[in-house]
């Protein structure tokens, strides 16, 4: 399969890239970067370093949006460290970003190979919204789209209601979720139940080799943050879970529902909330439905994630 990754690396973004890079049947056709966990300059530099580390230095990296469509960005140095990778200096990049923007690269790739390019979006959705503005037929031209974002029944992580990727650009997220993509939403509802705990981290520490060693060092800072949230030595595997769901939905997804999901744009307390109509008999709705993943094989994923780093 051919995959375009839009990301803001970011420690869990790094794991998503590691996961995809380890899948022999996945061709990463391009990586777009976006502000989010850090500035777009830093996430772009990190993407180049990570692709070199994980053995895919040839993948074109296109720098994307430096800010959301409407509001100022809200960066997450307290979760991912001052350089986005837990303060760890990853190996030097072996390439430079391409001249196109992330949105331009995505649009060109899907026009060249209609229906063949799947998209993994694990950062704020600004680049996808910009790509939609450049090419309104994007939902027909792209293959499957998996988005890590939102909190439907689970609590948010930046506010009581909103998850970071959606909250960083609610207008972009609202446009993308309503555009008619064949889209699966991997929200905190499942990612906060897919935790890499102490035992998994110890198993990773025992894996030899540069990739596993660096990844374990990146995770140190991230686990420190999650420990303060969860009260245990563990961390949430948001972005790599979304990657695994893109590659092997039949193995990873235990349960899902097809529902329209809207993003609250106005609420005084609920801006950025992802609102799904989960009533047993929802009213007819002309908004296109997305697949909301509601149950995953967390243990199966954690095993595969570890194998990917071996
Ligand atoms: C999402 O926000 C970012 O901090 C992570 O990389 C992930 O994509 C989780 O809310
Ligand atoms: Ca991310």
From TrEMBL:
Residues 3-302 form the Inosine/uridine-preferring nucleoside hydrolase domain. Keywords: Glycosidase, Hydrolase. The keyword Hydrolase applies. One of its GO terms (cellular component) is cytosol. Transmembrane segments: none annotated. InterPro entries: Inosine/uridine_hydrolase_dom, IUNH, Ribo_hydro-like. GO terms for biological process: purine nucleoside catabolic process. One of its GO terms (molecular function) is purine nucleosidase activity. This is Pyrimidine-specific ribonucleoside hydrolase RihA. The lineage of its organism: Bacteria, Bacillati, Actinomycetota, Actinomycetes, Streptosporangiales. The gene is rihA.
């Amino acid at each position: 399969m051919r995959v375009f990754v839009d990301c803001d690396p970011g420690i869990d973004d790094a794991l998503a890239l590691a996961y995809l890079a380890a899948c022999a049947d996945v061709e990463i056709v391009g990586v777009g970067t976006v502000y989010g966990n850090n500035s777009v300059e830093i996430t772009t530099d990190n993407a180049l370093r990570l692709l070199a580390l994980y053995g895919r230095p040839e993948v074109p990296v296109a720098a994307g949006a430096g800010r959301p469509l409407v509001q100022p960005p809200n960066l997450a140095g307290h979760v991912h460290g001052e350089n986005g990778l837990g303060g760890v200096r990853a190996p030097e990049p072996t390439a430079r970003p391409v001249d196109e923007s992330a949105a331009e690269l995505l649009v060109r790739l899907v026009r060249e190979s209609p229906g063949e390019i799947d998209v993994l979006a694990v950062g704020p959705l600004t680049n996808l919204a910009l790509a939609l503005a450049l090419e309104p037929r994007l939902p027909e031209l792209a293959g499957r789209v998996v988005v890590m974002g939102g909190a439907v029944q689970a609590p948010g992580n930046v506010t009581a209601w909103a998850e970071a990727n959606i909250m960083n650009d609610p207008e972009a997220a609202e446009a993308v979720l309503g555009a008619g993509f064949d889209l699966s939403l991997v929200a905190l509802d499942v990612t906060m139940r897919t935790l890499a705990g102490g035992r998994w981290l110890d198993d990773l520490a025992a894996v030899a080799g540069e990739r596993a060693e660096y990844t374990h060092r990146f995770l140190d800072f991230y686990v420190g943050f999650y420990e303060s949230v969860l009260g245990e030595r563990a961390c949430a595997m948001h972005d790599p879970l979304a990657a695994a769901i893109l590659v092997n939905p039949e193995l990873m997804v235990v349960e899902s529902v097809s529902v329209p999901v809207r993003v609250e744009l106005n609420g005084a307390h609920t801006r950025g909330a992802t609102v799904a109509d989960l009533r047993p008999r929802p009213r007819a709705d002309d908004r296109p439905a997305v697949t909301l993943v509601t149950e995953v094989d967390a243990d199966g994923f954690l095993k595969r994630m570890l194998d990917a780093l071996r």
